[in-house]
Amino acid sequence: MANESRPCPCGVGDRFDYEGCGQEVQVEHIKAYVCKGPASTDKAVVVIHDIFGWQLPNTRYMADMLAANGYIAICPDFFAGREAWKPSDDWSKFDDWLKTRDARKINKEADAVLKYLKEQCGAKKLGVVGFCWGGIAVHHLMMTYPELKAGVSLYGLIKDSDDISNLLNPTFFIFAEKDDFIPLHQVTLLEQKLKKNCKVDFEVKIYPGQTHGFVHRRGEDTSPQDKPYIEEGRTDMINWLNKYI
């Protein structure tokens, strides 16, 4: 995926000063960041972080944005206490690090979070969004948990061998045209498989000129030409959730 000579795959932007509007809570064996909007609601979205973990300001900014749009947003630590990747880490060791953090083996954490949302937050309508590593997790959860009524996978890595056609509920796939880590032929293959086999609503969308991580990277701060596409991606994400939750 990357090595020491390549840039950080989830380019984290310069939003490190963002402190968030929510609070940290304990959810069974893991910690989580929770943000609620001004009005009470029974709609909730699980926000799944990228390789940089649940405390990344960029991801909390996304959770706060969802809360402002009428959802209870929760960003749990799906690494369950294990260290997140840091941009300063040795990229030659990234593959070994990733092997110990399988985005498809998160059911224990997902069970705890969904129980918390239902019992502690009164949530009855549930969705999920995820970025990069979290995008892979969304693929898995949307084939596993029928109570998740909508999913948005943002630049989740896919392999030619992956078949994620058995989606249980509507799922939206966001990709960047110039993603160094997800070749466009893989996106095309994914769409072909979905059109052939998927029995629920889906959409696959490629955003022109964008790179990996564009929706949650806060690139609009530094790249005015990308701002319309960044805003479009966020609007599309929220509209999809609004449509199905």
Put the structure in a nutshell:
The chain has helices spanning 57-68, 94-99, 107-120, 133-142, 184-197, 227-244, and strands at 23-27, 30-35, 43-48, 72-76, 125-131, 148-154, 171-176, 202-207.
Helix content: 25-40%
Largest sheet: 8 strands, mixed
Question: Roughly what fraction of the amino acids lie in strands?
Answer: 15-25%
Mean pLDDT: 91
Strand order of the largest sheet: 1-2-4-3-5-6-7-8
Alpha-carbon distance between the two ends: 33 Å
Give the radius of gyration.
17 Å
Strand-pairing-aware structural class: alpha/beta
Low-confidence stretches: 1-16
Helix and strand run: EEEHEHHEHEEHEH
Shape: globular
Instruction: Tell me the total number of β-strands.
Output: 8
Contiguous helical run count: 6
Structure, described:
This is Carboxymethylenebutenolidase homolog. InterPro entries: AB_hydrolase_fold, CMBL, Dienelactn_hydro. It is a single chain. The protein has helices spanning 57-68, 94-99, 107-120, 133-142, 184-197, 227-244; strands at 23-27, 30-35, 43-48, 72-76, 125-131, 148-154, 171-176, 202-207. The protein is an alpha/beta fold. An 8-stranded mixed sheet has the order 1-2-4-3-5-6-7-8, with helices on both faces. The relative contact order is 0.16. It starts with 22 loop residues before the first strand and ends with a helix. Strand 7, helix 5 and strand 8 form a beta-alpha-beta unit.
